[in-house]
Amino acid sequence: MKIGVLSFQGGVKEHMDHIKSLGTDAVEIKDCRQLDEIDGIILPGGESTTMGKLLEITKMMQPLREKILNGLPVWGTCAGMILLANSIEDSKSYLSVIDISVRRNAYGSQIDSFRDYALIPEVSDFKIPLVFIRAPFITHLGDNVKRLCTIRENVVAARHDNVLVTSFHPELTEDLKFHEYFLSMI
User: Quick check: is 56 catalytic?
Assistant: First the structure.
């Protein structure tokens, strides 16, 4: 099994290190041709507007969208969640592959970043650390989207079929439960 990590910016190395520590191959994805070589892809945190522009510049937007719609497992963390959402408050959407609406920087600026812990039964039998950095949250879930986690009365993790989204950054903790969960989707 080989997992790709979209490598325009953000937590690329951290995601790759976690995937590799679980005994799975990880590869940086920078162009369309590489999409045929992977079994799943992670869209890391970073700056969603920049990442969206780079998806357009590299002509990866439509091929990646088609792969996901045809079943390629994908996990978007923070900015990656924004890229995958059908709707973004006060902005145009990008890949539009999961029926959610999101609010960018929903908890505030960089100084408002925080850490929390939550029990997410689908992912772990014990509380796991959650790191929020200029994090979005989900403001609307479509009927077929499963809520996985709520923090401070806001939905911060969800899944529909092959699409997983989190507002937080599991790659910035030592805990591997979310990466294991993603691998179990493949």
Answer: no
Q: What is the pTM assigned to this prediction?
A: 0.96
Catalytic member of 15, 149, 171, 179: 171
What pLDDT is attached to residue 113?
Answer: 85
Query: Per the annotation, where are the binding residues for L-glutamine?
Result: 46-48, 104, 133-134
Structure tokens at 18: 């976690």
Helix (H) or strand (E) run with residue 30 in it: none
Indicate the domain borders of the chain.
Answer: 2-184
Is 149 an active-site residue? no
CATH number of 2-184: 3.40.50.880
Phi, psi torsion values for 54, nearest 5 degrees: -70, -35
The residue length of the chain stands at: 186
From 83, 51, 89, select the one nearest 68 (Cα to Cα).
83
Say what the pLDDT of residue 110 is.
78
Q: Are 5 and 12 in contact (CB under 8 A)?
A: yes
Q: Which helix (H) or strand (E) holds 159?
A: strand 154-160
